[in-house]
């Protein structure tokens, strides 16, 4: 069984024996075969798609202006050198 790539090569071009660049490795990867025969590959894609909204929500909350200001204050409170006198 031969896997057909979705991106066809131009006429007269031949694929490298070993794909040296990341783009050629990505292009020559057997996506269809892995999707059909490797359950872990499908689960990896499904889990990424399912967890993406949760990751986006956490990222949005972490980079909200209120949270940025809060952490700026916390970092300023800890901004000292080891030669500063102790304080409470």
TrEMBL record:
Residues 69-88 have a biased composition (Basic and acidic residues). It comes from the Eukaryota. Residues 62-88 are annotated as: Disordered. It comes from Bugula neritina (Brown bryozoan). This is Uncharacterized protein.
């Amino acid at each position: 069984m031969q896997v057909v790539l979705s991106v066809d090569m131009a006429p007269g071009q031949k694929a490298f024996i070993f794909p040296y660049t990341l783009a050629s490795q990505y292009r020559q990867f057997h996506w269809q075969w892995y999707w059909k025969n490797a359950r872990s590959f499908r689960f990896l894609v499904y889990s990424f798609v399912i967890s993406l909204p949760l990751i986006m929500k956490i990222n949005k909350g972490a980079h909200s202006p209120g949270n940025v200001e809060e952490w700026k204050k916390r970092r300023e409170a800890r901004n000292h050198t080891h030669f500063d006198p102790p304080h409470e």
